[in-house]
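During the first year of the project, the team set up a workflow for recording each protein of interest as an amino acid sequence followed immediately by a discrete structure-token representation. This format lets reviewers and collaborators read both layers of information side by side without switching files. As required by the reporting guidelines, we include two representative entries from the current panel. The first entry is reproduced here exactly as it appears in our internal archive.
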Amino acid sequence: MKNRYYLAVILFGIMITSCSVDHTNNDLTITETEKQHLNDLFSTSSLNEQESCLTVNLIAGQNHTAGTVSVAIRDGNFIITYSTNEDWLIYGTHLSINNCVDDDFPTTESGNPKVGRFEYSTNNSTGVTEVVYTIEASDFKDRFCFAAHAEVTGPTGGETAWAEGEDFPGKNWAMYVEGSILDCNTEEPDDEEPNDEEPDDEEPDDEEPNDDPKK
């Protein structure tokens, strides 16, 4: 009987040890998967989209949503961010921005944009998922217009992409976006709060005449 008891105890111990090892291996597999998922959730592009005041789709080949183009204003600068969806890469960008005045975009006589004349551009030979422009915003008062062009590659191959907005007057499908500076104003009126406390300092002066009735 004692031998059987000891044998049962040994077998039980082996079972517990194997379960612990299997559980540990499962935990390692889950941790690696969760780590990759968290990296995707907390990417730079996701944070930029949450802080932006204007976000539009980046349309590739007229029919595919390859990502987004977002705008924020921080420290007196426009922060314009191209971000792609999964399976899309950016190989080049062209950007033009103005005060929404007629003929401010470089265009042909027929109204098609001259992408090569845009003020800002990037070239990424290996392909990237995000491009960020920082542009001074001090010359802009009420409105701003920008045309954001990109050369992208995805499941459908190489495509031309534009930030989704209004059509250019030309015959191609190029687009530009119009936004409001007021929508992007993130300044908080913290400096005005102390002004409300000034009248409190004058209240004690009104209580001094109350001592005269004692005479």
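The second entry, processed by the same pipeline in the following quarter, appears below.
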Amino acid sequence: MKKAIYEEYGIKVQDLRKIGKFDSFRVHQTDFLIVPITNIDEEEMYELYQLSEFMVEKREPNIARIVVTKKNNLFFEKDKAKYALVKYAAFTQGRYQQIGRNLARFHQKARTYPYQLSKTQRIGQWKYLWERRLDQLESFWSGKIHSQPFTQFEKMFIESFPYYLGLAENGIQYLVDTELDEEPQPIDSGTICHHRFHPTTWGSAQGVKLPTDWVFDHASRDIAEYLRHLFFERQEELQENGFRFLDDYDRTTPLSAFTWRLIYSRLLFPIHYFECVENYYLSSDNDKPIFEAKLKEILTASDQYELFLKSYSNMLSMRKKRIVLPSLEWLSS
């Protein structure tokens, strides 16, 4: 790896160390991370580069900048894998205490990005992406029903899928109704979001904002995924921190009725379940027990998750603004 970096960038690396899940090194007070980018193609990399340079211009703190190779490429290849080299300034702890407010400000700046995007663009595509994902998993499930014997995981998957199919269809319908009923406001225009935003996205070991984590989408994506993560990983914090996070965001950038409803439709769509099943079948035999345990946890928490969905519509800041969310009959009964 040291040799590859010298050849590609002309940078002499003394020693590599691990920071979080990345290899890292330091040269003249500048820190670098080596980020695997297997699933990102050249065009998408270029868009992410443009977005990150834009955010640096906007003086957003802790943006990791993609370093260009000597041949003007945004990544390099080694042993048939692709990597990007990013540089960042050392991070001061405690900067992200008010994550709701900081995320709202980040979204505000990114909303002013003036150029057209295609590869990183997800805004307006949820319905199509969710339906495609649902169809794929449903046909996979139909095939599994007839193939015996079942592993423990497959038994859980086969029995639970009809419930999550119903939940997914509710999420899609809620999204469609929202788009028909509500008028989007300026806050509903596209911004930089993360594939999955959670409490450690910015507060982790390296504490940097990595462009390789980004997509261009509606802000509700980050808000919903943050709340979902709290539900599954830090449930004891959900009532206090989750709702404080929402209030901090809403005070910084007031959320429209359209946004409140999009957050809800995204929470209804069980991405956590889909990802767990998909990851199980894509993982090596060594990792399969991790996803089996994860699925067990998701299924055990399904009643709690319904209660969480119910409690969302009683959010204080929504009531203050007299925003009423259409309720789902089966959930409110």
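For the second entry, the following points were noted during internal review. Strands lie at 17-19, 22-27, 30-36, 65-66, 76-78, 81-88, 191-194, 214-217. The domain at 2-90 is CATH 3.30.200.20 (Phosphorylase Kinase; domain 1). Both points are flagged for discussion at the upcoming steering committee meeting.
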